[in-house]
Amino acid sequence: MIEFTLIGETETHQISETEFVRATKNRYPYVQTKQSGQKSFYACCPCCCNSIQLVNIHNKTSKVIPHGKHTGKSIDGFPIYNETLYMTCPWARHGSYDWEGKKAELDLYEKEILLRAIDNIDRAIYYLETILGVYFKWKLKEEAIKEYFANQGWLYNIATKENLPMVVLYVLGRKRLNNLLIKKDGLLYTELKKGKIVLKLYENSSDVFYVKDPLDIRVCDFHRTTSSYDYTEIFEMAVDNAANSIYDNDLLKFKFVFDRDRYKRLCEMETWQKKEKYEIIIKKEVDKLPQTLFDK
Ligand SMILES: [Zn+2]
Q1: What is the distance in A from the centroid of ligand 1 to the CA of 94?
Q2: Which of 36, 144, 151, 181 could form a disulfide with 135 if both were Cys (CB 3.0 to 4.6 A apart)?
Q3: In angstroms, what is the span from residue 46 Cα to ligand 1's centroid?
Q4: Span 174-202, pLDDT tens digits
């Protein structure tokens, strides 16, 4: 990974010599000296909060750029290593895991996911509309928000601070395709065309379509590939015949690759204005949550 946090904090820092020294002031337990005199550098994973060892932060001649890797065991001065959180960490390099499952416990990290969701769920919906090339009807936008909060989206194993759109798409579950207005030449349009699904022009428009047939769309699989410096998240989407809803009768499947940087840029857009309609729906859902969720 290329970012770290400090113990008990959520602010992320880029892994570099300057930033490490600035944030940790070279204090214990971030810097530890072995009996041999060799120094080791530690911090916390920005996602699972477990201890990580920083590699190559002071070596400017190496081609290996500074990065962090999970220590896989408890380190003096750091919280006890939590294997359960490690298993769901996007920076963990292990085999498959229960991507549809949810975490039983709420920690600092999940609270941060929730706070970001409250701020950004409208942007997450906008992101989905843009990437899929669709317009959600208001009813569907409202449903997405309700489902996210009712299902405690922040506890999903796949949820990170950075992938809210994926969790929103997932909690929507199986949806009738006619909830969506489909933009010409967008991802969904292209895939439906490939699958020979009949698209009809919407009202008087020339570039917005809809599907009249009773077809459903759903997320059917999730993949994450992780390297030392990056990770990629992909949903596999499927369209099936709702009237004959046997899952192996999928009419088509396609990949939805999550562009983390693009979504991040959208979240950082200062000119973004939350629509009042969104404010009302979100507030209603947040008011239902127990106040303890927001305790520090
Ligand atoms: Zn981690």
Answers
A1: 11
A2: 181
A3: 7
A4: 999 988 999 999 999 999 999 999 999 99
Q: What is the Å distance from ligand 1's center to 92 Cα?
A: 6
Nearest one of 223, 291, 232 to 260, comparing CA atoms: 232
Q: What is the per-residue pLDDT across 220-231, written as a single tens digit (0 to 9) for each?
A: 999 999 988 899
Q: How far is the CA of 30 from the centre of ligand 1 (A)?
A: 16
In angstroms and rounded to an integer, the radius of gyration of the C-alpha atoms of the chain is 22
Output the CA 96–ligand 1 centroid distance in Å: 15
Q: Burial-class residue 4 by CB neighbours within 10 Å (0-12, 13-18, 19+).
A: buried
For ligand 1, the distance from its centroid to the CA atom of residue 56, given in whole angstroms, is: 19
Predicted TM-score (pTM) of this structure = 0.90
Quote the Cα angle for 154-158-161, to 5°. Answer: 55
Separation of CA 35 and ligand 1 centre (Å): 28
45 CA distance to ligand 1 middle (Å)? 5
